């Protein structure tokens, strides 16, 4: 790989230890994946924020980089293992909270914006079409590449942080135009109206074609909330970094020869597979990925004047909650007994063992509730969930 | 027998091979406290990777796995070296930040569990005694 004079100096340690060890990672990755050079990135999203995932070693890794590391581009954070202000109400143990606060402090010291959300695109980390970025968080990566038209690989926590501390990433994979072309057409012959329709579609396509770039046809319209749900689902079940949706997403692509179809039957079957039944839900969790402002408003309207009888989490980015506070939505939601959970969600919070069955509108949330937390799951639309929880 | 592959992380190690026919997810699939594979139904389920030359086709699962490898290195439960058929970013970054010698593009069918193996991360070679 060819490095500029400045990059060579960064690698040799002339810009400090954090830059040097970051360059070690980026240059090694570049060589492994045959990148010709490093390119500049304008924005970073870092995963690996929950102390539950990082552990003591991860925390000490961050602490070492924070000794002299400073981010060079706008950098935001994935959800943490708890609400950074309201963790006690969500039942988070004190020793966990102490460690989680240390993790966030290390990021803050490096100049990272510590907003802790999987939807950086809702809170101001929104570069323009065509910009190269280094994002982790699989749902956000898929949204960035496909819906916003940014260019990023599926970064892991350490490589995204390395890009933040250097402003660079190796040029391979999804950064290159030839790898962004559709390889298979997916004809959707099913009704696509709701969040769970789109979640189920991501589940079916992800399982069928895996990481292949799809040109999806037959979806007439999609809201940003539906696209958010679809991105999270297709990335979870297929490892997808990028898709094209005809008439909806902005990237250009060649039209491939190979094609597959998705039927209404498959969508219905996917919804059944995402419902375990057996036990009644003892936690209702919405906001995976974190809710948009519009979704918060809708939920507030549904909850107005009602009382929830079960544990209910409404997961949002803190800046969105601030607007919800201002608009009076938070007050309505909290008055119902539901809890606003900022900075975190049901996927990354340490809730294993506390519940038996989780009800959600998120196909991604289902995967982690089942796999990581061993919960039974119920997959339904938000209005139905609210109805059940307040009955 | 010498197998020629590609350098992922420099360094040398010598030890006993532990070979998996399936990919490994370090996050959730391996317990950092003990080095044991805990993924249900995995061919290595219940076996310990600590101090072994760990041989498997490729990494899988959550990108947080890189930090799990680093955690294991700090606890002393990490493998001595990693040999892959095809590297991906989770294992590559894990090996780099943990300074574990790592080589890929190796025909791993040639290596059997229990073989005495030398890994040379500098030149990308794996030698079976």
List keywords for this structure.
heterodimer; A: alpha/beta; Aconitase, domain 3; B: alpha/beta; Glucose Oxidase, domain 1; eight-stranded mixed β-sheet; two-stranded antiparallel ribbon; 3 helices; 10 strands
Molecular structure report:
The complex is a heterodimer of chains A (391) and B (129). Chain A contains 14 helices and 14 strands. Chain A is of the alpha/beta class. Chain A folds into three domains: 173 residues, Aconitase, domain 3 (2-Layer Sandwich), CATH 3.30.499.10; 93 residues, no CATH class; 107 residues, Aconitase, domain 3, CATH 3.30.499.10. In chain A, helix 2 crosses helix 6 and helix 7 runs parallel beside helix 8. The radius of gyration of chain A is 21 Å and the shape is globular. Chain B has 129 residues and is α/β, with parallel strands linked by helices. Chain B has one domain: 3-Layer(bba) Sandwich (Glucose Oxidase, domain 1), CATH 3.50.30.10. Helix content of chain B is 19%, strand content 30%. Chain B has an eight-stranded mixed sheet. A two-stranded antiparallel sheet of chain B has the order 4-5. In chain B, helix 3 links the parallel strand 7 and strand 8. Chain B is globular. The mean pLDDT of chain B is 94. The interface between A and B is medium-sized, with 27 and 27 residues.
Q: How would you summarize this macromolecular structure in one to three sentences?
A:
Chain A has three domains: 5-177, Aconitase, domain 3, CATH 3.30.499; 181-273, no CATH class; 283-389, Aconitase, domain 3. Helices cover 41% and strands 14% of the residues of chain A.
């Amino acid at each position: 790989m060819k490095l500029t004079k400045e990059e060579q100096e960064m690698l040799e340690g002339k810009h400090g230890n954090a830059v040097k060890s970051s360059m070690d990672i980026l240059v090694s990755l570049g060589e492994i994946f045959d990148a010709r050079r490093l390119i500049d990135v304008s924005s970073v999203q870092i995963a690996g924020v929950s102390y539950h995932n990082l552990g003591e070693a991860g925390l000490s890794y961050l602490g070492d980089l924070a000794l002299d590391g400073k981010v060079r581009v706008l950098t935001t954070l994935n959800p943490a293992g708890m609400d950074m202000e309201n963790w006690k109400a969500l039942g988070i143990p004190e020793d966990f909270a102490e460690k989680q606060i240390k993790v966030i402090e290390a990021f803050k010291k490096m100049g990272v914006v510590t907003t802790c959300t999987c939807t950086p695109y809702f809170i101001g980390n929104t570069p323009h079409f065509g910009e190269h970025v280094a994002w982790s968080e699989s749902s956000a990566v898929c949204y960035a590449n496909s819906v916003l038209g940014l260019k990023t690989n599926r970064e892991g926590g350490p490589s995204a942080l390395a890009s933040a501390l250097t402003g660079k990433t190796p040029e391979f994979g999804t950064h290159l135009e030839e790898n962004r072309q559709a390889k298979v057409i997916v004809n959707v012959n099913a009704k696509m109206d709701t969040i769970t329709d789109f979640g189920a579609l991501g589940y079916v396509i992800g399982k069928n074609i895996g990481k292949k770039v799809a040109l999806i046809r037959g979806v007439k319209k999609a809201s940003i909330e539906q696209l958010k749900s679809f991105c999270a689902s297709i990335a979870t079940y297929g490892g997808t970094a990028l898709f094209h949706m005809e008439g909806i997403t902005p990237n250009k692509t060649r039209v491939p020869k190979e094609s597959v179809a998705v039927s209404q039957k498959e969508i219905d079957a996917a919804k059944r597979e995402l419902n375990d039944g057996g036990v009644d839900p003892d936690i209702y969790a919405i906001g995976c990925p974190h809710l948009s402002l519009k979704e918060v408003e809708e939920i507030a309207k549904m909850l107005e004047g009602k009382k929830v009888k079960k544990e209910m989490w409404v997961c949002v980015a803190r800046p969105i909650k601030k607007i919800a506070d201002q608009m009076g939505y938070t007050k309505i939601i909290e008055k119902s007994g539901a809890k606003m959970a900022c900075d975190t969600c049901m996927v990354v919070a340490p809730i294993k063992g506390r519940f038996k069955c989780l009800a959600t509108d998120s196909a991604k949330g289902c995967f982690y509730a089942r796999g990581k937390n061993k919960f039974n799951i119920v997959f339904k639309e938000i209005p139905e969930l609210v109805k059940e929880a307040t009955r | 027998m010498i197998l020629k592959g590609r350098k992922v992380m420099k360094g040398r190690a010598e030890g006993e091979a532990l070979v998996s026919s399936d990919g490994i997810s370090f996050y959730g699939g391996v317990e950092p406290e003990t080095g044991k594979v805990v993924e249900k139904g995995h061919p290595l389920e219940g076996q310990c990777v600590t101090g072994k030359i760990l041989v498997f086709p490729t990494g899988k699962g959550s990108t947080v796995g890189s930090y799990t490898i680093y955690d294991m290195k700090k606890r002393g439960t990490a493998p001595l070296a990693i040999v892959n058929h095809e590297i991906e970013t989770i294992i590559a970054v894990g090996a780099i930040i943990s300074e574990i010698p790592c080589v890929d593009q190796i025909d791993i069918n040639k290596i059997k569990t229990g073989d005495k193996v030398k890994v040379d991360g500098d030149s990308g070679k794996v030698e079976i005694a």
